[in-house]
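How it folds
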Amino acid sequence: MEKIDQIVNEMEEKFEIKDLNLNASLTDLQIDSLDVVEFLLGLEEKYNINLDLSSEEMNNLKTAGDLINLIKEKIK
């Protein structure tokens, strides 16, 4: 399983989502900015990576897909 697939699975587990729809807004999924930060910090620790998001990047996160795509960009 690819690392990004593992991250999607972890996101589903953490936020108790079945079959994550990447087009779903974070608001609809009841995920706020603090949840995103905590999730990213957990990923950094688990995978020993640095995601270091700017305020602009955080503000541009609207959907689950936005979050996953940003993580993909950061871990390349």
Observations:
- Helices lie at 3-14, 33-47, 55-59, 64-75.
- Residues 15 and 35 are 9 Å apart (CA to CA).
- The domain at 3-75 is CATH 1.10.1200.10 (Non-ribosomal Peptide Synthetase Peptidyl Carrier Protein; Chain A).
- The chain has a mean pLDDT of 91.
